[in-house]
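Student: Hello, beginner here. Can you help me understand the protein record under this note? Any guidance would be welcome.
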Amino acid sequence: MEDLYENAPCGYLSTLLDGQIAKANTTLLSWLGRDREETVGRLYFADLLTVGGKLYHETHFAPLLRMQGEVNGIALELKGADGTRLPVLISSKVKKGSDGQPLLIRTTIIDARDRRAYENELLRRRREAEEAREETERARREAERDKERLQSVLAVLQRSLVPPSLPQAPGMEAAAYYHTASADQLGGDFYDVFALGDGRWGFFLGDVCGKGPEAAAVTSLTRYTLRAAAMHDADPITVLTTLNTVLHQHYIRGDPRYCTAVFGTLTPHASGVTMRLASGGHPPAVLMRADGAAEYLPTPGGLLVGILPDAPFKDVTRELRAGDTLLLYSDGLTEARIGPEGTRYGDDALLDFTTDLAPAGADKAVSAVTTLLESFGDGLDDDTAVLAIGIPAPTTSHEEQT
């Protein structure tokens, strides 16, 4: 067993919770050209990464590992003792004691220069993840009887995190829907539509990482920060930059908290409405046109809000005409599982769905998406927020009489 560990065809690494290396096999040390004495107990996992890898580890890998307990198949580059770079796939998992407390982190490192060598490992990891997800669901069902007394309280708190109703701007219409995945936990999705003055309107939709009271606190802070920032300067990039600063400074000394968010403004004019939209790591909005077409509105370069002290954001501008509808949603929609194999619903399926739906007003769009969400059944395992804003199409005299 010792020989199998030391000379395995992949690298093995065990670290303490702070990242200090506690154990490494001979395979990994030979790849890196390092001695065991200078590595174990002296270096940290981040010391083995390139500069770009260290940044990704701090902003994405480590936060996801803390939240999920495991991270699989992440592509990074290791730095050898002589400065050479080794592309690898890294999978890490937190080992817990019998009391449920984390003890250490186990990491498997696969040489990515030969993709075939790690394909079976990725499949095995996927099966383990599915088994873990099924075990979590079984445990949740067993614990339901102990949590029933809390569900009514949590429902009241959840409703307080979203507006009770949406205002209807002149010449525009808005509709929204919120699906709560679990009555036992507070979700982190949020949305709002509000007046900015001078006939302009602001809107946003987002998703805070995690669930529970901590996520709810971030949701509340995020909603009020977005509204306050928009009242001062409604430029979408400026608003998201302000939110990024607030979240980063507020949680920099504690448990990192961040979110994805879309913020936009609507400015009516004689021939329609000018929309400006910026995104921070959020799924792209869908624009359904009056002529029956549908398209994603990409906002490239938008990072998760609150991860870095200085995060770049970009915006997109579109003209909305009569019959056009903008659809915003959180990732619970596209990540829902469908079919006996549990495949993800996905971005392509959503674009096909909205193309078939267009043209559709805000109410019809939200109603159709609500029906779609209900059709997923147990496959919809995440909170999902949907917000639609449209410009009503002119009605014919026959329609008015009807």
